[in-house]
Each structure stands twice: as structure tokens, then as C-alpha cells.
# Entry
Amino acid sequence: MPDLDNPLRNLPQVQRLLETPGGRALSATFGRAAVTDALRDALARLRAQIGAGEVSGVPDTQTLLARAGETLAQRGRRSLRRTINATGILLHTNLGRAPLAPEALAAVTEVASGYCNLELDLASGRRGARTRMLEPLLRELTGAQAALAVNNGAAAVLLTLSALARGGEVIVSRGELVEIGGGFRIPDVIRQGGARLIEVGATNRTRLEDYRGAIGPETRVLLKVHQSNFRMVGFTEETDIAELACLAHARGLLVVADLGSGLLRRPPGASEPSLNEALAAGADLVTCSGDKLLGGPQAGLILGTQAAVDPLRDHPLLRAVRLDKMSLAALEATLMLHRDSPQRVPVQQLLSQTEAVLQQRAERLQTLIGMGTVERTDAFAGGGSLPEQRLASRAVALPLRVGMDEMAALLRNCDPPVIARIAEGRLLLDVSTVPDSDLAELAAAVKTVLT
Ligand SMILES: *Cc1c(COP(=O)(O)O)cnc(C)c1O
# Structure
């Protein structure tokens, strides 16, 4: 006779649950010991909830077994997982930025599943610097005399300033003292590099005269920072790299340009200079990320003149920010693709999708879901790249069954997780970042959430 006054007394025993058909089925999949553990967990949680008055009755056997099954399935899943990006942000920092090309993945598998000549010069049999092999490629692609690759873009800036400006002054326009995101602020990086920041100009206008007036005996570097994630419009003026280079070189100073996204070729309409253009304009060093528009793994590139790059090679910080063999393999393979067939770099493909293709894909997704409407929308390059570029896209707008945030959370909880875009009070699945091969899985996830 169940004791209605005290639900704790009615909790089934682990042994009894294990002997039910459902319990046996779980044991066959996950092993009896793991199922015992998971059931104990489920019962302990329930006991706590009953004790706290959050739950009054005892769920049936099926529900308890299902909870244990969910715990077991989750334990078997890695926490870093493939995710469906339906945000329409091509280079989404929270979603791992650039997808890698098959060639890059093959290179990673090859060098990481066994040994590789990471720091061995095969010709001489001696120890070699780990990013030497990238130099000829980077020289060819960008026109730089010398190159170095490190762990990420932020590390590239930090190493550069530490090696070239420590103890001295770095002059930056007030309009370029940006925060890139995740707490990466240019003034902080300059301080970390052991240099003093000299701000010049006004937020919206900085002229060559402002830089000239600020140069003193301690000045080492004129730093130009790409504004990345924001745009100034209206009454604005900035000094370009060529003008800065003239001024700097007449005074024996260096021009460093932190370009951020790493364009090898400037797409039509883009306002930011490519790596080639910045170097040709006279920058002594340029830095950028490997996983933004370059379309490679997380990495930071440092390109420039021999005289500017050489001091970085012996700097102690280089060891702390060095690239690992997997990133290095992926970076080299991506750079080779840029040289031989740039249209095969996934980011390039994402940027060049036509509206007709996106319309078709959105219609297919809408048909597979059987609900929602296809709508015009804009996708974004993201990662602070090409912020002014409008990428015409299509999305499926979902009907809302529950609150929007709740629905977004349910989608994130799917397997694979789905990240949708919330825009103007609607939940959108932008198809520009969803490959055709993911449509069926995306539709299935959405259907379970909607029904
Ligand atoms: C993205 C960016 C960085 C930081 O690069 P990470 O690779 O994310 O470390 C630095 N500067 C600029 C201008 C950027 O856009």
C-alpha cells in the first residue's frame, strides 16, 4: 500500500529497477555498473527534490529509467561537439570561426596520428624553427620578406609589441583603441607588451600631423589597428598606412598594422586593406588571425620586413605563444589552397554563395520542417571582418511554440546542438552557414522542438 504522506518511502529500489525490462535494456547498452550508478544518481536527485518540496509524487519506473538513460548518453558525449550554425554569421567566434578545408583536415590527421618533422630540418638533420616551412608560402602570397606564425592574432600583436616597443612608446589613434571582444583591448595589450600608449587625434579624426606632433625620443612604433567590429560614419578622417610609413621611416620608427582578418585579396566593396596592400603601402609588420577570412585554423600571422621580423624570432614570448603541430599542418594546407585553388577554401565558398542557391536551400529546409516561412535576411562575415559588407541570405522563420529564449534553448539542447538567430523578435534559421548535408538533421531537430 503506497504511503501517500511520505513519497520518499515510495522510491523504488535500484535493484528492482535494474531487473525491469527497461533496466535490462540499459544494462545491455551501457553496462550494469554504469546503469546502477546512473539510477542511484537519478534517485538521489529525486530525493533531494522531494526533500526541498519541489516535487510531490514519485515518477513511474519508465520516467526514472529514461532519466538514467539520458545521463548515460550525456556521459558518453564529448562536451566539445559539432554544432549546427544557423546564425548566418560565417566566422562566429563562439562557434569556432572558420570551417577547415578537407585538405587541411587531412594534413592534421597525417601529422598528428604519428610523428612528424615539426622541428627537424630534413635536409641537414638538425633542429629547425617550426614555422620556417611557412615562410616561402607566405612570402609568395603576401609579398612579405619574412613571416612568423603564432597561436592567435592577439598573441601576434603582443609578441610584436613586446619585441619592438618594450620600454618605449607606441602611438595609436584614439579612433583605433578598440576592444575586439573577449576582453582583448588594444590599450591593455600595449601595456602588457611593456610599452606606453600615446593616444593621438580625436575619436573620429586623426591626421598625420597628430602623429608627427606626438613623436618623441622614446617613440618606437606607430600602430594602426583595424577597427574590426565597428564602423565610424560621418565626419571622420584617418591616416593611411602609406602616409604613416613615410613619417615613421623618416624618423627611424616602425609602422605596425594589426589587420585582424587577414585578407589575401580584397573582395569588391571591402574597405579594409589586404595583407599585400598593407605591406606594399610600407607597413614594417602586419598581423592577422588565421581563422578569420584566411579560413584556416586558430593562428596569428606576423608578416613584414626581415629587419622587423628577426627580433621576434629570439624573443622568449615566442615559445609561450607558439603554434602546435595540428594548427601548423592545417595552416600550411590552407595557405597552399590559397595559392593553388583559392575557391576551395570553405570561407571563400561561404562568401560567394548566390542568392538563388540560398533561396533553394531555405525552401528545402522549410519543406523538410513542414512549417515556417522562407524570408530574406542578411548574413554577416563576423569575427570583426568586413563589417560593412551585406551578404544577402535567406532564412526559415520558425513559428513560436513557447517563449523565444526557451525555444532557442531547446534547439541548443538538441544533438547536434542547433544555434539559431534571434532577430527582431523572431527565431531565424539562416541557411548561409548550414551546408546542404546538414539540412535533414537540422530539420529533424527543429521538428522535435516544435512538436
Ligand atoms: C580578431 C582580431 C584580433 C585578435 O585575433 P585572435 O586571433 O582572435 O586572437 C586582433 N586584432 C584585430 C584587429 C582583430 O580583428
Observations:
- Residues 84-93+348-450 form a domain with the Aspartate Aminotransferase, domain 1 fold (CATH 3.90.1150.180).
